[in-house]
Each structure stands twice: as structure tokens, then as C-alpha cells.
Amino acid sequence: MDVSNVLAGAKSTILQNWAMTRYDVVAHSQGGVLSRMLSSQNPNGRINAPFRNEDNFFRGRFHRVVTIGSPHNGSRILRFLLALTTAKCESLVTSNHVNLYHANNPLGALVASAAVYAQVAQAKFDPFGDQIKDLNNSSTSGNWYPDPAAQFHLVRAVTDGGKSPVIGDATLAYQVLDLVYPGGGETVIPRGSDGVVDYDSMAANVPEAPLAPNVYDMPPSLAICRAAPLSCFGATVNETASTAIAQHVINALDQNGQEPASNTQFGSFPLPPLVGDDVRQAIDTFACSLFQTTELQAIAQDSTGMDERPHPLDGQLNFYYFHINFPSNEPPSGNVTWFAMVYGTNGVTQGGVTCTAGGTNDSQVTVTVDSGLIGDVVLFAFYLNTSNQMVQATGQLVTSQGPSGTFPVGIGILPWDPSMPAGSVLPIQLATIYGDGNSSMRYVTEGSLAATSSDPSVVSVTDPLNWQLLSPGNAQVVVTWSGFSATNQVNVFLSTSESPQLSIARSGGSLLLGWPLWASDFTLTSNTSLAGPNWQSVKTLPVTNGQQLNLTLPPAGSPSFFRLQR
Q1: Could you please report the per-residue DSSP string of 178-237?
Q2: pLDDT tens for each residue of 128-177
Q3: DSSP conformational letter for 456
């Protein structure tokens, strides 16, 4: 509804100077999904009017729609990020392995967590989640069943030559996410991706289903990725800056013959089948298998011998030396890969730190930290053993530095006051707040942080770093770390496939309305006609009564209808 209103506002501005009825839409990523939802042949609780309605003289809301890199069937990479972040391994490995996974805080999981919390990776694009299932419901009466009159042209691009990641792949994003290990790329993105959305999803397709004729593939040699930084994906340009994509879209809309007609076809949206649950199981299994091998301990060394704390070289505070002692039962088959992550003022990044490896199998590394760098520098290492399994080293804090001339005054928890569906696992991140108003992310290990929940039946904090959201409701979670405390308000709701129940009763001459507290992001609307388009928000605010929201209204002068609308 919000997108529909924005489009209507933009259209009204254009109509001040131009005469037009319908218009073309060019949409990237999520915009393509939203445009497709506005092309539903059925009205529902989120859009009042279907694609063809009386406002557009039953010709359709849009003339044509071009989608570019859109996750029409979700993103399998997103599923992998969620599996790394939430550790969906309980049914696959022992609880001890799960605890080790949380304690290790491995690099792939760190990057996954950062992506989830920055909302780059959003759970609504999980191919196996309720929202994608609702979106791709094949029933003609489904909420988002595409109107066959809506004309679409789907464009997809790929990076890394359109291949799935394999051992030795140089693409940094795939290396960091551990997709270059046996079974990784073939499981998560078997036919490549644009770095974020898998190849099949951009075409609204699941092999072995035939590919729709209104799908166009940009040449893989162009190495077009979804988004910056290009260096992460080994790409030359991203989709929104690609002149090749722009020219193709112009040719398709103009139908000017500069490209073969087969490349510029429009047609009905090819509603994809859902990705099979066997794929979900395979992705989750691979994500968990990364952390079932033996732990390592990276230790520091100076000229006098071994120590459990890092020491600077040559008396300089920004050079640190580490090495790995390979366990006898986990010999390496190749070189160690070292990464240093900075938990700092810009979130979790790799800027300001370099790692220089050497020694047998690169078992030694010198970590160089830029002078004046603010934050926690943490070193990670992994290698393949002779059994072709990944061996992950426990993250080691190299150095920690706050802003000069100020001191910590408090902490903050990310995500702040989150709202998530029941059944989720919520990994948290911590930031220190300094006296000058700046803040910096911190590297937090298991056991260094404590958490208490006001309602453990809603939010369980048995694992203080990974909160279990158990049932709809609200809970306050108090987190304590390094002498500071912070409180988060957590709202837990049912999944989006669940609709809140609105109750209506009479009391004397008044109307009593009620709905669940977990549906606080829904708005109560009313209308004098059930089929009318002009549903208006009820201005009176509800009051909280336990786990319910209640509202009392005076008697209406005419028949009224009520509904909850997100």
C-alpha cells in the first residue's frame, strides 16, 4: 500500500504537465518484487484494488514492468547467511558443536550477522520463509497471484563468469562467506549469482522448469554484480550503474529492433514453483558442516618464547606476530588463509589492517594496524586439512583502542528494540558509547556478557549472544557488559502468514474492539462499505490490556466495517 501511494503521488506530479494514463516501470531488486505485487489480480489486506480496476478503466495499473536482478523466488545466498547467523544446526550436530560455533564466532558468520543487521540481508527473502511462500502461492485466489494481463520483462546479470564458487575461487565475497569449500557453491548457488541473488530466482525459475521467453540474460563476460563494493564480487560494474543494462532496457521498452525481438519480449509473469525443501536442508547442512571440525588456537609469539597474549614487534604498537601450531590430527593440505576484522566506528569492516603471511603453509602472520585506528582488531584463520575439511581458528583479539581523550560512558545493543517473528534466533552485537558522542562496535566473546529477560516465555536469553524468540509478546532484555548495562524492548510477533484476529462486541451503545498486542504494527481502519476503496484509519488510539490492544468507540450513525491493515 505504501508503494502504491508513493507511485500515485509521483504520477500526480507528472500529470500537472503531461497527459498520460498508464506508465512503464523499471525496477531493481526489491523494487521488482514490489512492482510484481502491485500487479496482483486479486485485492487483499495490503492493496485495496487489483491490477485491473475502475481507476485505470480495467486496463492495468502499469503498461509494462522491467525487473533487474530481482529476488522473485527469494535468495538462496540469503538462506545461507541466515543459517550462518542463527546456527540452524540443532538437528544436525550435537549441542557441543553449536556452542563451539557461537564461541568461535567464525568469519563467515560475522559477515553474515553484519549483513543481516545492516538489513542488506533480510529474512523476508528467505526462499523457504512464509513471505516467499505467500508471494509465490500458485492458487489463482492467492494474495499475490499475478494478473496475466500484466506485461513483464525480466533481466538478470551474473558475476564471476556465471559460475558457482569452487575451491580456489578468487572472489572475495565467496571466500569470506566460506562458499569456496567443498559442496559450498554447488549447494548454495549452483548456477551462479549477481553476488546477492541467485541466477534462477532473478528469472522466476526453478530448474528443470522451462525458462520463460520474457527473460533476458546479460552476457556473463560483463561481470555485473548487484551492488558495490565491486572488489568483493570481482565485478566491473553494478546493476544500477551498468550502461549495458540501461541500453538493453531502453531497447526493450522502445522495441526499436536494435536487438533481436527474442531478446526484448514482454509477457505474463512466470510464477515460479517454490524451491524444494531438499535444497533448504542441503544449504543448512552445509552451513553447519563448516563448524564441525577441530578448533585451533592462534597464539602469539615473541623472541623469548610462547605467550597467550599478543606482543608487538620491535617495540612498535601497530605490528603483531601470530602463528598456528597445526594439531597432529588436523594436518594442512595447503596454506592458511588469514583475515583481520575491525569492530569499529563504521561497523564490522576490514579497513585499516593488513595481514602478511609467511612460514610453512603460511602458518605465520604479521598483523599491521594503522595508527589511530579505533576499535577491536580480531584475527581469524582457516585452512583445509588433508581430509578436505575446513579447520577454523578461534578469533583472537589483537588490539583494542578507543578514541583519544575520551572514555566509555555506556553500551548499546544492535539491533535496537527489534521486532521479529516467533521462532527466530536473534544474534546480537554490542557497541561502546564514548563521552564525545561517538560509538564503536565491540568484539564480544561468550561468557563476557550477561543478559536477563523480563519474560523468558517470550524471549529466552539462555545464550546471551543468541536470543530465542519463543512466542508472541513483548519482553525487556537487560544486557550487562564491562560494568555497563543497556535495555532492549523486543517485540515478537507471529509470522506474516498469520493474520491477527479482530474481535468486535457491543457494550451498551458502544463498540468494543480488540486484537493481539503482537499485531501493534497493524492499523485499525473503517469504511461504510465492505467493497469500498476508501478505508480510513481510526483516529482513536487503543490501550494495552495484558497481551491485548483494546479500543472503545461510540455508536456509529450508519453501518460500519472494520479491519486491521499492516
Answers
A1: TTTSTTHHHHH-TT-BSSSSBHHHHTT--TTSPPPTTEEEPPGGG-EESSS-HHHHT-SE
A2: 988 899 999 999 999 999 999 999 999 999 998 888 887 667 787 787 77
A3: T
Decide: 441 and 351 in contact? Cβ < 8 Å.
Answer: no
User: What's this model's pTM, rounded to 2 decimal places?
Assistant: 0.56
Express each pLDDT in 247-292 by its tens digit: 999 999 999 878 899 999 999 999 999 999 899 888 888 877 665 4
Burial 6-36, CB ≥16 within 10 A → b, else e: ebeeeeeeeeeeeeeeeeebbbbbebbbbbb
Q: How deeply is 476 buried, as exposed, middle or buried, from its count of CB atoms within 10 A (0-12, 13-18, 19+)?
A: middle
The segment(s) of the chain belonging to CATH 2.60.40.1080 are 408-493
Strands 25-28 and 299-302, how do they pair?
unpaired
Partners of 524 in beta bridges = 564
Secondary structure of residue 527 in the 3-state scheme: strand
Secondary structure string (H, E, C) spanning 127-153? CCCHHHHHHCCCCCCCCCCECCCCCEE
Which pLDDT tens digit goes with each residue over 94-141? 322 222 222 233 445 444 544 443 444 567 889 998 889 999 999 999
Residue entry with cell 528494540: 417
Which residues touch 96 (CB under 8 Å, ≥6 apart)? none
What is the topology classification, in CATH, of domain 299-401? Immunoglobulin-like (2.60.40)
User: Which CATH number does the domain 408-493 belong to among 3.10.450.50, 3.30.470.20, 2.60.40.1080, 2.40.160.20?
Assistant: 2.60.40.1080
pLDDT in the model for residue 115: 47
